[in-house]
């Protein structure tokens, strides 16, 4: 078993770190995007035919794209600041990516505004479900991941055992 120090020295994430939460959130997010694609496509096709199916698929792709932006923003911010999540630069990078997501969303909406293959209400509902679902996914990933608040090395005494004070 590797210690958190060995894992960080080798470039791996230690168990219970923010990378673990991020990885879990990405897995849950992928499941969410696939679920929205499948269920949304079936409902969209039943309501509006092919345009409903395509609209639900576009909503699922937007979901996956934005969850990817979130993951990349956290990874870039962690790399730039040396994993100092309390740094102003960390939050600056996250805010920059948030603004990028906003601009990309506006561009997507403008490009798809008059497209004949888009059913606006179905795409809106798919994106709305995706936003609520991604917030739920992030909370579940955070709550279900055990993150230590005491470093193993700091808790161990001189001979590597934990001794009461």
Word description of this protein:
- This protein is mainly α.
- The protein has one domain (15-145).
- It is 75% helix and 0% strand.
- It has helices at residues 4-9, 18-48, 50-81, 88-112, 120-144, 152-155.
- Helix 2 (18-48) packs antiparallel against helix 3 (50-81), helix 2 (18-48) runs antiparallel to helix 5 (120-144) and helix 3 (50-81) packs antiparallel against helix 4.
- The chain is elongated.
- It starts with a helix and ends in a 10-residue tail after the last helix.
- The chain crosses the membrane at residues 25-47, 53-76, 88-115, 121-143.
- It comes from Lacisediminihabitans changchengi.
Order of helices and strands: HHHHHH
Task: Give me the Rg, rounded.
Answer: 21 Å
Overall pLDDT: 80
Counting DSSP E segments of at least 2 residues, the number of strands comes to 0
What fraction of residues sit in β-strands?
A: under 5%
Low-confidence blocks of residues: 1-16
Write the layout of secondary structure elements.
Layout: H1 4-9, H2 18-48, H3 50-81, H4 88-112, H5 120-144, H6 152-155
Key descriptive features of the protein:
single chain; 165 residues; mainly alpha; 75% helix; disordered N terminus
Please outline what is shown here.
The chain is an all-alpha fold and 165 residues long. The chain has helices at residues 4-9, 18-48, 50-81, 88-112, 120-144, 152-155.
């Amino acid at each position: 078993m590797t210690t958190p120090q060995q894992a960080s020295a080798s470039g791996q994430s230690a168990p219970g770190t923010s990378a673990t939460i991020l990885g879990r959130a990405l897995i849950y997010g992928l499941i969410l995007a696939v679920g929205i694609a499948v269920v949304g496509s079936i409902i969209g096709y039943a309501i509006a035919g092919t345009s409903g199916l395509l609209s639900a698929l576009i909503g699922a792709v937007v979901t996956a794209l934005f969850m990817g932006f979130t993951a990349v923003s956290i990874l870039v911010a962690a790399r730039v600041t040396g994993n100092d999540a309390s740094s102003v630069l960390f939050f600056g990078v996250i805010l920059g990516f948030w603004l990028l997501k906003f601009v990309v969303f506006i561009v997507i909406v403008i490009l798809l505004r008059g497209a004949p293959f888009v059913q606006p209400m179905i795409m809106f509902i798919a994106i709305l479900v995706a936003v609520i679902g991604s917030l739920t996914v992030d909370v579940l990933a955070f709550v279900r991941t055990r993150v230590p608040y005491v470093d193993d090395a700091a808790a161990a005494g001189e001979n590597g055992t934990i001794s009461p004070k």
